[in-house]
């Protein structure tokens, strides 16, 4: 009898916990998913979609024009130290740094520049842009709130390229007018993911890397300068607003709690 009472109490407590979680989680997820929405941009810069990226406190705002497969974007992040740099890029051949087509914002002689870099390995970046696979226009950067740097650009993507592997990074210093090597903390390593440019209707997975492209096991020297996204393995998909809701809906904890609550309600 006593154990039956205990069972009932426990059942009720779990039911209450489950309903609290049910009520609280959507609100929490909405707040989390909406954090990037509070960002403001100068006149003339507005974007249809934004995402809070999964590492380094970065956000990405973008407008993808399917008609001409152009991507207008604003990437925001706080450099690792004042006078550092921020970077965002697409990797069409893998999920790490090598092969990434990147935009890097930093100051040269006091003024922001946005350089393009075709990352060919863990090598130092120079002071000058290198050609990337996508035509890059409207490149600019400025200071946002709370020490963030906002990087703007427009990329002309291949037709149909609507899900991409993207990487992002922050560094603490600019040396000889070039971005210096970033730190290799967990967040630096985690700063990559798969991004659907067209939102909820996009396929979940990024396109398969082209055959023979380096995916992992870089033999490059990790100690050389200016690696952008060091670990080409184990990236988490970056949360897009729709991904956040998917994550909520499929939360294993909730599923278990609901199943348990249902079971206890029956017995
Ligand atoms: C980027 O670098 C790779 C490796 O050197 C090269 O194969 C590729 O053609 C380069 N891309 C552009 C756009 O120059």
CATH architecture: Sandwich
Describe the sheet with the most strands.
5 strands, antiparallel
Output the structural class.
alpha+beta
- How do the strands line up in the largest sheet? 1-2-3-8-7
Bound molecules: 2-acetamido-2-deoxy-beta-D-glucopyranose
First and last CA, distance: 14 Å
Tell me the count of domains.
1
The quaternary state of the protein chains shown equals single chain
- Which fold does the CATH topology refer to? Immunoglobulin-like
Q: Taking all residues together, what is the mean pLDDT?
A: 75
- Give me the strand/helix succession: HEEEEEEEEEEEHEHH
CATH C-level label: Mainly Beta
Number of helices: 4
Radius of gyration: 22 Å
* Number of β-strand runs: 12
Content of β-strand: 25-35%
Shape: globular
Kindly state the percentage of residues in helix.
10-25%
Low-confidence stretches: 1-6, 17-32, 201-267
How would you describe what is shown here?
The chain crosses the membrane at residues 245-266. Keywords: Membrane, Signal, Transmembrane, Transmembrane helix, Transport. It comes from Lolium multiflorum (Italian ryegrass). It is a single chain. The protein is an alpha+beta fold. It has one domain (44-237): Immunoglobulin-like. The chain is built from 4 helices and 12 strands, in the order H-E-E-E-E-E-E-E-E-E-E-E-H-E-H-H. A 5-stranded antiparallel β-sheet has the order 1-2-3-8-7, with no helix packed on it. Strands 6-5-4-9-12 form a 5-stranded antiparallel β-sheet, with no helix packed on it. The protein has a two-stranded antiparallel ribbon with strand order 10-11. Strand 7 (135-143) and strand 8 (149-156) form a beta hairpin. The two termini are 14 Å apart. The site of 2-acetamido-2-deoxy-beta-D-glucopyranose (NAG) has 5 residues, from loops.
